[in-house]
Amino acid sequence: RGLGSSASRAREDSWLKSLFVRKVDPRKDAHSNLLAKRETSSLYKLQFHNVKPECLEAYNKLCQEVLPKIHEEKHYPCALVGTWNTWYGEQDQAVHLWRYEGGYPALNEVMSKLRQNKEFIEFRKERGNMLLSRKNQLLLEFSFWNEPVPRDGPNIYELRSYQLRPGTMIEWGNYWARAIRFRQDSNEAVGGFFSQIGQLYMVHHLWAYKDLQTREDIRNAAWHKPGWDELVYYTVPLIQEMESRIMIPLKISPLQ
C-alpha cells in the first residue's frame, strides 16, 4: 500500500510539474538571423545616461553642440536616430539611439576614429563629470517593424522595454509580426528592436504620439480591433518585466 501510494504521488507530482515546464522548440539558426531585417545590416546602439539633476541643462547643451557633428560627418558610418530626455519614468535621464550602417565593422570604425578625435575626447571627459551612471545595448531591428526615419514634430515618444523570458524571442517575434498591423493606423509605430549585447532578451518598441491623451486614445482603440486582445493574451506570459518611458526629443533629434 505504501509503495502504491508513493508511486501515485510521484505520477501526480510529475503531471503537475509538466503544467509549468515550458517546452521550447530547438532552433537550427540564430534568433538574429530569423528575426532581423535581411536587406540591411544596420546595428543600433541604445544609450541610457542618468544625469546629475543639477547638470541636465548643461548636459543637453553639450550634447547639442557635439552629437550633430558626429551625425553629419561623412567619414563616420553612423547616424543619430533620436535623442531625448525622459519625461515620465526615470528622471534626469537622457536616451540616445544610434544607427551603424554596416553592422559591427561600422561600429568598430566609428569607435576607432572617435578615439583619435580630440574634441570627442574632451566631450566625454566633460560629460563624465555630469553623469551618475550610464549603460548601453547593441540592438538589431525586427524585420516586420518600420524603419525609424526622421519625422516632424512636435511629438512625445514612448519607449516600451520588455525583459523576455529566455528562449521566448522567436515566439514574441511571431506574435508581434501579426500584432503590429493593429498599431499602424495613426503612424505611431517608429521602430522595434531586440538586444544582441548588453542586457539580453530585451525588446524595445518605440512609438510617437502628439500628446499623452492621443496616446491613450490610440491604445484604447486597438482593443476594439478583432484579434488584438488575443495577441496580448499570448504575449504577456513571455514577459518577465516591462517598463514605459515617455520622452521629449532634444532640438537636434531627427525624430521630433
Task: Write the SSE topology.
Blueprint: H1 2-20, H2 31-35, E1 43-51, H3 56-72, E2 78-88, E3 93-100, H4 104-114, H5 118-128, E4 131-141, E5 156-164, H6 169-179, E6 189-197, E7 202-209, H7 212-222, H8 228-235, E8 239-249
Antiparallel strand pairs: 1-3, 1-4, 2-3, 2-8, 4-6, 5-7, 5-8, 6-7
Helix pairs in contact: 3-5, 6-8
Task: Write a structural description.
Residues 157-254 form the NIPSNAP domain. One of its GO terms (cellular component) is mitochondrial matrix. One of its GO terms (biological process) is mitophagy. Keywords: Autophagy, Mitochondrion, Transit peptide. Belongs to the NipSnap family. The protein has 256 residues and is of the alpha+beta class. The protein has a single domain, classed as Alpha-Beta Plaits. Helix content is 36%, strand content 30%. It is built from eight helices and eight strands. The chain has helices at 2-20, 31-35, 56-72, 104-114, 118-128, 169-179, 212-222, 228-235, and strands at residues 43-51, 78-88, 93-100, 131-141, 156-164, 189-197, 202-209, 239-249. It has an eight-stranded antiparallel barrel. Helix 3 (56-72) packs antiparallel against helix 5 (118-128) and helix 6 runs antiparallel to helix 8. The protein is globular. The model is unreliable at 14-24 (pLDDT under 50).
What would you say about this model in short?
It is built from eight helices and eight strands; from the N terminus they run H-H-E-H-E-E-H-H-E-E-H-E-E-H-H-E. The protein is α+β, with helices and mostly antiparallel strands and 256 residues long.
